[in-house]
Write a structure and sequence with these properties.
The complex is a heterodimer of chains A (134) and B (364). By secondary structure, chain A is α+β, with helices and mostly antiparallel strands. Helices cover 37% and strands 22% of the residues of chain A. Chain A has one domain (8-107): HupH hydrogenase expression protein, C-terminal domain (Ribosomal Protein S8, Chain: A, domain 1), CATH 3.30.1370. Mean pLDDT of chain A is 87; it is low at 1-8. Classes of the chains: A alpha+beta (134), B alpha/beta (364). The interface between A and B is large, with 42 and 47 residues.
Chain lengths: 134, 364
């Protein structure tokens, strides 16, 4: 069976409503600071829908990789505040993909618990170094 | 085994996974369980206290396709699920132990986690001659009853365990029945499919792991999160059904243009599963996207429901709500196909000669 469409109309249809949803999410973000997360794995997407969506969103200024339980890529699209977040496991397989409409995606921010651990760890390190110098 | 051991959050922390990594785990778990991303904080809170459940997996009259499917789950990986998040104490295909040692592991898990372990079953249970299917000399029926007695809940994985499946196909020579026909005093959750989508199996396990309870079920005992909508309603080809655009053969213009496969026997309209959104092979595709209609493998009786390539005998309800000439044309086309197939079905039924076991034996 063909994996490439014979004509474009057959394989499209869901990118446009999603783009509209993203636009409304941007309005909400501006008005109240409310963030929106859309799970791309929960939507019926045709073979060309996703390519069309990604092409329409384009590439923006930020491209970050988080190495926590496998690499996750956090990319801002050409539309500021619209982020594409892709989670992969240790073997590089895609686990989940989200569109996040936010000023900063939550996972990019350092987490309070981790910061507390780090403050403790740095104090520990400094104490050890001071002991060595004594 | 590890019922009273560390919580999931503690296990992840011991592995050096940061809070950020934990939140990523929660986000992928939410997606896996088909829950909205807004549930991530609730999942994070629940996982702070969740402990690794003990799981006993029994395989009865089955083809091992469900286990094959499970081992291809990538999210979370089965290795991760088994080694880190659940304690799979018995699975005779996957475990290293065999014979007496394997049965001892099952008995130990049942004893140590009485009333708390999760029992997963794939395959149907023969009620005919007990010798049709045994493990370690124990009949499937006895083993199921004995193991279910101390389980918190039973998950019937695959259409055989959920509804009887292929072993129950007419004339059902072994008297195969599903788990729910035997276990009446425990919650039984059905995860049908032949096989079920890998991440649906792990998604249900993840739900139990996270919340310590089973998800909301439909009338057929299936989790609504995965089986709440029909393939047809979530199909990206659905607009073509509404427009009356159908592929008539597998190589005509309609097939090439990716039109609706209803006339080629697609059972998507009467099949409830997550194939159209979750898809297979890490979200690459699903049967309809590959050009073949749905065969309805997650529905009871799909094995005896007639030819896979005959259109359903009734046009489907939701299209009635659609407005516009195209929708009416689609409905009319569907009705015409339905009429043709009703008469074809009647003549097929009239001409149908049933084959019995005796006939098969005579023909040898």
């Amino acid at each position: 069976m063909p994996s490439t469409p014979a004509d474009d109309e057959a394989w499209r249809g869901n990118a446009l409503p999603l783009l509209n949803e993203i636009r409304h999410a941007l309005d909400r973000l501006l008005a109240s600071g409310e963030t929106t997360v859309i799970d791309l794995g929960a939507l019926p997407m045709g073979p060309q829908d996703e390519a069309e969506l990604l092409a329409a969103l384009g590439t923006g200024e930020v491209d970050a990789t988080i190495n926590a339980g496998g690499p996750s890529s956090v990319r801002e699209t050409a539309f500021h505040g619209v982020w594409l977040v892709t989670h992969r496991n240790e073997t590089g397989e895609t686990q989940a993909r989200f569109i996040e409409v936010a000023f900063v995606p939550e996972l990019l921010m350092s987490q309070r618990e981790d910061v507390a651990d780090s403050a403790k760890a740095l104090s520990e390190q400094l104490r050890e170094e001071q002991n060595i110098r004594k | 085994m590890a019922i009273d051991g560390p919580t999931i959050a503690e296990v992840l922390r011991q592995q050096g996974i940061s809070r950020r990594g934990f939140l990523k785990f929660c986000a992928t778990t939410a997606s896996l369980m088909a829950l909205p991303p807004s549930m991530v904080p609730a999942i994070a809170a629940a996982l702070q206290h969740a402990r690794r459940p003990s799981v006993i997996w029994l395989s009865f009259q089955e083809c091992t396709g469900c286990t094959e499917s499970l081992t291809r789950s990538h999210s979370p990986s089965i290795e991760g699920l088994i080694l880190e998040q659940i304690s799979l104490d018995y699975h005779h295909t996957l475990q290293a132990a065999s014979g007496t040692a394997a049965e001892a592991a099952r008995e130990a898990a049942m004893r140590e986690n009485a009333g708390k372990y999760l029992l997963v079953v794939d395959g149907s249970i023969p009620l005919g001659n007990a010798g049709f299917s045994t493990i370690a000399g124990i009949s499937n029926l006895d083993m199921l009853k004995e193991t279910a007695a101390g389980a918190a809940a039973v998950i019937a994985v695959g259409t055989c365990a959920a509804y009887g499946g292929i072993p129950a196909a007419q004339p059902n020579p072994t008297g195969a029945v599903p788990v729910s026909a035997i276990i009446k005093d425990k919650p039984v959750l059905n995860v049908p499919g032949c096989p079920p989508i890998p991440v649906v199996i792990t998604g249900v396990l993840a739900h139990f792991l996270t919340f310590g309870s089973l998800p909301e079920l439909d009338a057929l005992g299936r989790p609504k999160a995965f089986y709440g909508e029909s393939i047809h309603d979530r199909c990206y080809r659905r607009p073509f059904y509404d427009q009356g655009k159908f592929a008539e053969t597998f190589d005509d213009e309609g097939a090439r243009k990716g039109w609706c496969l209803f006339k080629l026997g697609c059972k998507g309209p009467v099949t409830y599963n997550a194939c159209a959104t979750t898809k297979w092979n890490q979200g690459v595709s699903f049967p309809i996207q590959s050009g073949h209609g749905c065969i309805g493998c997650s529905e009871p009786g799909f094995w005896d429901a007639g030819p896979f390539y005959k259109a359903l005998s009734m046009p489907i309800g939701p299209a009635k709500a659609a407005i516009g000439a195209a929708a009416v044309a689609g409905l009319a086309a569907g009705a015409a196909v339905a009429l043709r197939n009703r008469s074809a079905k009647k003549s097929a039924q009239a001409a149908h000669q049933k084959v019995t076991i005796d006939d098969l034996e005579k023909s040898k």
